[in-house]
Design a protein that fits this description.
Number of helices: 3
Number of domains: 1
Largest sheet: 3 strands, antiparallel
Number of strands: 3
Length: 103
């Protein structure tokens, strides 16, 4: 968090993202035998495509459909991680300029 100057108010998003990465990547551990913790528990290889697009707190562009002319529809935000159990597959939490995280 210090490397990216992430505010402490986003600590919970960082912890969730860190746990996602750690559980879905392989570790050098005798008990895991080269597999991911997710694979050991669930029995199948996890899909990591949602973790490969962006790094935590990375600047991104998002499309805001409700913006009215002359305000641009493309807006700048920060990526906070995957939004599990919210919306469709590969939904993400982002932090727009308002400072209120949205999915």
């Amino acid at each position: 968090m210090h490397l990216w100057n992430v505010p402490q108010s986003l600590w919970d998003f960082y912890c969730k993202w860190s746990c996602d990465v750690r559980s879905k990547t392989a570790h050098v551990s005798f008990e895991l035998d080269g597999r991911t913790p997710f694979e050991v528990v669930m029995g199948y290889t996890p899909d990591i495509s949602s973790l490969m697009n962006y790094d935590f707190y990375e600047p991104i562009w998002y499309y805001n459909e409700i913006s009215q002319f002359p305000e641009p529809k493309r807006k700048l935000a920060r990526w906070l991680g995957e939004a599990h159990n919210v919306g469709q597959a590969m939904s993400y939490f982002i932090l727009p300029q308002s400072g209120i995280p949205i999915a």
